[in-house]
């Protein structure tokens, strides 16, 4: 009986590989299920093997366990299928590049061997009063492009130390990385956060000589709330030095997003919008318009990389599909990495199925926009 109960529990958890999490804590669990699938596979296999005693519960438990095992395996299989066409699709969307790396977009072995990789140290710079940025110096000599990273956290939390592993990868590949802090809501309302990106860029230009930055090549990269900030900045600054923008599961249409809020058991999206923008849509409609990147796409907008998954329970997947349609309409070069098992925070580990795909795509995107 105990075996059956445990197999039913793992079966219910395995559903998080296919469906949006219904509560906040199950969303966190979904990251483990989808990005650390070896854990679920190992536990389920162990419970299935624990079936040596024949009783009336063995067969139903085994059936449930096999189904759970297949669902835990599904993120790996689906990412393998996606990775087989990724290079070709990005070549079509962004143009072919000299891709000197022979590493595939996804490797099963890297899910284990990639753990514990050494991270680079950053230096702290004050770019506007008490605001700081963490600077990761390119590990290749000469003036290099700079990637400005803007953290997530519902515009009210998070900091520049968030998910630093990608910063090391980019620096090792020859890009400077400036991971910035910005003023937070509810104390400071939009568009102050977008203005902070401009201030950080100004600082980096002023100190380009000592930091060896190629000031003609910046790329903005943001996660979640940070993606909203970077998208608006990229599409409204009209700065030719911004060669591209990367959005990890970002809210691109704040007006539409307010009309279709997230499940409150997971995330009170309307409350964080109100705190960030200073009121409801009915109270400050212009604020919602001004913070909707989709409203500012033009044929001159910089190349864009979108990363999102349909099981994201915090920022609806349609934010990215709607922006994708607008980019297509305006003939802006872009690639939409739609991750079948990607939940919010799918890049928590760069070694997971979605994490490997996002890392490959970002590096491939940077090669296409930074010459």
> What is the overall silhouette?
globular
Q: Please provide the count of β strands.
A: 8
Count of helices?
14
CATH superfamily membership of the largest domain, which one? Alpha/Beta hydrolase fold, catalytic domain
Protein name: Alpha/beta hydrolase
Domain BD-FAE-like: 133-327
InterPro entries: AB_hydrolase_fold, BD-FAE-like_dom, GDXG_lipolytic_enzyme
Transmembrane segments: 30-50, 57-81
Q: What features would you describe in this structure?
A:
One of its GO terms (molecular function) is hydrolase activity. It comes from Flavipsychrobacter stenotrophus. This is Alpha/beta hydrolase. InterPro entries: AB_hydrolase_fold, BD-FAE-like_dom, GDXG_lipolytic_enzyme. Keywords: Hydrolase, Membrane, Transmembrane, Transmembrane helix. With 371 residues, this protein is of the alpha/beta class. It folds into two domains: 2-79; 86-369, Alpha/Beta hydrolase fold, catalytic domain (Rossmann fold). Helix content is 45%, strand content 14%. The protein has 14 helices and eight strands. The chain has an eight-stranded mixed beta sheet, with helices on both faces. Strand 1 (123-128) and strand 2 (131-136) form a beta hairpin. The termini are far apart. The mean pLDDT is 95.
